[in-house]
Amino acid sequence: MRTVNMHEAKTHLSRLVKAAAEGEPFVIARAGKPVVKVTAVNAPAAGSGRRLGFLAGRVRVPDDFDRMGTVAIRSLFESGE
Fold first, then answer.
1. Is residue 66 part of a domain?
2. Does residue 2 form part of some domain?
């Protein structure tokens, strides 16, 4: 993501806003530190790429999932090799 300083943002605001509206968000920095992120209004919210629950009802997790393989793992640690 492109970062611009405050002066550059003021000078090229129209161009930067056009690019953001076309899906190229940018960050405005003050004294080298990011201050704001400019994105298109209809842009997906941050983190929306992760779809929680999209496999709900299609995948079954066994009740003993957190205990699966304990015997094999324990034997690896206790084998002394």
1. no
2. yes
